[in-house]
Specification:
The protein is of the alpha+beta class. It folds into 2 domains: 1-58, no CATH class; 78-129, no CATH class. It has helices at 11-18, 34-44, 63-73, 121-128; strands at 2-4, 25-27, 84-88, 100-104. The longest helix has 11 residues, at 34-44.
């Protein structure tokens, strides 16, 4: 699903031009703050899992194949939380004019983990705080 947060761009025509019945387009009639926009998109989403991407985000090659293998490996978990790569183009960040790629692992539970894992009950309780 593509959720259009009241963009001035003609996203609807672009999506129609893809001519793919699997892609559902929804639009907010008013601009929403980012969290409200994400929550609206999640509410409209259908399926077993949802991947949120901003309009300036992307997925690495093989993302969905890897996600499917993780779903199978862990028996269809309720939630999958992942780390991410942050790429900044050259001449965008004044502190790093050459640009950069950073591997972001937001969450204490990633420490010492290099492969997908299931959180312990204690980690789940701690993460909810």
């Amino acid at each position: 699903m593509i959720f259009d947060n009241a963009s001035v761009d003609d996203i609807a025509s672009y999506v129609r031009g893809l001519n793919d019945p699997r892609i559902v387009y929804r639009r907010s009639e008013e601009f929403l703050p980012v969290t409200d926009s994400w929550n609206a998109a999640i509410e409209m989403a259908r399926g077993d899992y949802v991947t949120l991407l901003g309009d300036d985000d992307g997925l690495t090659p093989g993302y969905f194949v890897r996600l499917e293998s993780i779903v199978k490996q862990f028996g269809c978990p309720d939630i999958i939380y992942s780390s991410l790569y942050q790429f900044v183009h050259p001449n965008v960040a004044p502190w790093e004019p050459g640009g950069y790629l950073a591997y972001i692992r937001n969450g204490f539970f990633f420490v010492g983990q290099d492969e997908p894992f299931e959180m312990s009950p204690d980690q789940v309780v701690k993460a909810r705080r």
